[in-house]
Design a protein that fits this description.
Layout lengths: L8 E3 L7 H10 L4 E3 L2 H8 L10 E3 L6 H7 L4 E5 L3 H15 L16 H8 L1 H22 L6 E4 L7 H11 L25 H19 L1
Helix pairs in contact: 4-8, 5-6, 6-8
């Protein structure tokens, strides 16, 4: 039976940063894993036993990592990142992929539309600007908080071909027990851009991303 006292691994980066690969890696290691946006929300409200019965956590965004460390002091923290441009591109594609036939009349009442969709289709430029600065600030906060702490590692799974080896070394350095079974290929839910039917609209939306980043660079 699962023990609530077992050490935990929190992937505190945003969605669209290799979270599915991390989730499947954990399962390959024989660890219980939750891949959802709920646990980061709970970290701001309640840290009760009911909400943290798994050993590994990924997906979601902007967890209260300081409270998580206080509640689970022996746990490990992974800041899963990628370039902010690539991340914004991926998030825009994610929103478009699932909402190409969006009905604006039910945008705010249908549960199939989440916060990202509502923000994006209310004001695309404002939403992308908000996401951009939220990402930059949160990532920097995590880097400052965990600076020089041995229970922390930052990984760019989308670019680093050695991320599994680096993660294994991180586990071993911290005496974290796991049993990884080698797989022929990495798990990923990456999808090509051509799956989005509205290619012209996609190009316009990605141009908004470019303009927001350029604005901050000036």
């Amino acid at each position: 039976m699962f023990s609530f006292s077992k050490r935990k691994v929190f992937c505190i980066g945003f969605n669209k940063t290799g979270t599915s690969s991390l989730h499947n890696f954990f399962k390959d290691c024989g660890l219980t894993s939750e891949h959802s946006s709920r646990w980061p929300l709970y970290s701001h409200v309640i840290l009760g036993k009911l909400y943290y019965t798994k050993q590994c956590y990924s997906d979601g965004e902007q967890s209260n990592f300081a409270r998580l460390e206080q509640k689970f002091p022996d746990s490990l923290f992974i800041l899963n990142t990628r370039s902010v441009k690539d991340w914004l591109y991926s998030r825009v594609k994610h929103v478009m992929r699932f909402t190409e036939a969006i009905d604006m009349d039910v945008l705010f009442t249908d549960d199939k539309y989440g916060r990202m969709e509502r923000e994006f289709y209310t004001d695309k430029t404002a939403a992308i600007t908000k996401w951009y600065f939220e990402y930059k600030i949160y990532v920097q906060q995590a880097r400052i908080y965990f600076q020089n702490k041995p229970n922390f590692i930052e990984l760019d799974i989308t670019k680093d071909p050695d991320w599994i080896d680096n993660l294994k070394s991180f586990f071993e350095t911290n005496n974290f027990k796991y049993s990884h079974q080698e797989k022929e290929k990495l798990h990923s839910n990456s999808r090509p851009s051509n799956q989005i039917k509205q290619q012209e609209l996609l190009a316009l939306n990605l141009a908004i991303v470019d303009s927001v980043i350029a604005m901050d660079s000036n």
